[in-house]
Recover the amino acids of this structure.
């Protein structure tokens, strides 16, 4: 779900009367106004002829208990063959998308992956961030079972589930001609997020399948947290290593109330390290996002805001850390939410864009100090870039000479 932290004052077409009334109520009780990215649209006419009518958005009025500690077991990436020979060796073609992240695998059917291949997929996603599979016939029931291999599945407290009963662990992504984005409601930087980072144990390996793709537009940009961390000076990295930040579900819950949809689980705040260490790779990643990260613990507001804005802008504006995925029908992307932030591109209206997401829980985010206190096979926390340079026999960049000599840029 693409969140944003800025309130909108203009209703979206299709449910204008509802939103105007809700805004009036909000103004009287101090609740933030309608926001098209926290406040999901509960309206929509039935379309009996639409192939995936049963998977269109539905907002059940049910109440769920707060989430406590969840036993996610040992990360499946620990069980993988490091060469990934079972997965990559069986592929028809492997297309590496860039030096920092991303790979597209052809010739494999996700329904038929072996346990060994699934585990190697977890390791591959931990290393390169996102893995793309095109034209996958996997059903949503099979996608759910696939997701359970990686951990217990998350149920979202506010966003839509499919109309079909029994699919409460599925998150619906949906846009059509009746859901026109309001550009006054957000900036492009604010749209980058990692899913539900306010949970005590946010998602790990995540899958999103497009079941109805627009002819053009509606791409997704994925940003690599390893590369964001590695872009900073060693001095700043060391400072960030010890920081913690507050992640909050409150704006999302308030948005649901304003839209007239039910909040199924009470909103929570969680405190997570700003630099998160992936348990399998041991690599350090920036773990904040504009959608849910609100403040850095223990810092004056002006300092906290300055640091978070620097991190947010580096995530959103550093094109060399990005992979842009253009979707086709039945494409599925698997990514590691512990490393990746993402944003949809809002140029799809008035076309339909319909996707289904399955989201396993991961471990509680681990700081550099806590990771180093454990005796994991991944070893001590470290920079991804420095490790790759060392393995390639390349000397690390001398930061004292930055800005001198050859700039390395050629258009």
């Amino acid at each position: 779900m693409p969140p944003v932290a800025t309130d909108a004052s203009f209703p979206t077409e299709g449910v204008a009367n509802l939103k105007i009334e809700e805004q009036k109520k909000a103004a009287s009780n101090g609740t933030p106004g309608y926001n098209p990215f926290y406040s999901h649209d509960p309206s929509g006419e039935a379309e009996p002829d639409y192939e995936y009518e049963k998977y269109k958005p539905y907002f059940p009025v049910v109440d769920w208990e707060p989430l406590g500690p969840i036993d996610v077991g040992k990360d499946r990436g620990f069980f993988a063959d490091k060469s990934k020979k079972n997965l990559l060796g069986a592929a028809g073609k492997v297309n590496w998308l860039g030096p920092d992240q991303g790979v597209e695998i052809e010739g494999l059917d996700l329904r038929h992956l072996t346990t060994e291949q699934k585990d190697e997929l977890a390791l591959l996603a931990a290393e390169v961030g996102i893995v793309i599979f095109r034209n996958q016939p996997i059903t949503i029931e099979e996608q759910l079972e696939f997701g359970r291999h990686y951990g217990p599945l998350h149920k979202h407290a506010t966003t839509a589930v499919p109309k079909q009963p029994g699919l409460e662990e599925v998150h619906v992504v949906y846009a059509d001609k009746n859901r026109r984005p309001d550009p006054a409601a957000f900036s492009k930087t604010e749209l980058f997020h990692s899913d539900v980072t306010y949970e005590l144990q946010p998602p790990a390996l995540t899958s999103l399948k497009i079941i109805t793709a627009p002819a053009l537009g509606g791409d997704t940009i994925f940003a690599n947290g390893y590369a964001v961390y590695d872009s900073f000076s060693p001095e700043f990295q060391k400072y960030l290593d010890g920081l913690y930040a507050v992640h909050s579900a409150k704006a999302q819950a308030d948005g649901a109330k304003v839209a007239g949809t039910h909040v199924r689980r009470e909103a929570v705040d969680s405190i997570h390290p700003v630099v998160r260490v992936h348990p399998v790779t041991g690599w350090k990643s920036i773990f904040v996002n504009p959608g849910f990260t609100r403040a850095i613990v223990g810092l004056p507001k002006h300092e906290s805001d300055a640091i978070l804005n620097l991190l947010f802008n580096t995530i959103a504006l550093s094109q060399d850390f990005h992979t842009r995925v253009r979707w086709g029908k039945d494409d599925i992307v698997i990514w590691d939410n512990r490393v990746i932030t993402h944003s949809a591109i809002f140029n799809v209206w008035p076309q339909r864009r319909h996707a289904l997401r399955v989201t396993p829980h991961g471990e509680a985010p681990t700081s550099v100090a806590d990771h180093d206190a454990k005796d994991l096979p991944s070893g001590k926390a470290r920079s991804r870039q420095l490790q790759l340079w060392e393995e390639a026999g390349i000397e690390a960049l001398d930061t004292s000479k930055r800005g001198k000599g050859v700039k390395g840029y050629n258009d």
About this structure: The radius of gyration is 21 Å. The chain has ten helices and 17 strands. The first strand starts at residue 57 and ends at 58.
